[in-house]
Write a structure and sequence with these properties.
93 residues, mainly alpha, single chain
């Protein structure tokens, strides 16, 4: 359900009134989806390792997915978000 929420909030929703988010180039759109997939894959790895769902949901990095679309330097920001997701989830198991 968490991944579905980020698909809705970070991938599907756009803010037409925001200078950066009004238009999203295909490469940026693809990177947003890759970052969400990173959350999905790492969350399932954590679940398989026995990490409780509540701990997976509590990582600080996941909500940052929602800011990728409004960040001008999205490539660096997206890489940082993905690295943070991996690091925070892997340290739980």
């Amino acid at each position: 359900m968490e991944v579905a929420r980020y698909l809705r909030e970070a991938f599907l929703q756009q803010n037409a009134l925001h200078d950066v988010d009004t238009y999203c180039e295909p490469k940026k759109t693809y990177r947003i989806m890759e970052a969400i997939r990173t959350l999905n894959d790492e969350a399932f790895e954590a679940l398989e390792a026995g990490v409780p769902v509540e701990e997976i949901q509590s990582i600080d990095a996941a909500p940052r997915l929602n800011r990728i679309a409004t960040t001008e330097e999205h490539e660096e920001f997206t890489e940082d978000v993905e690295d943070s997701i991996e690091e925070q989830l892997r340290e739980k198991y």
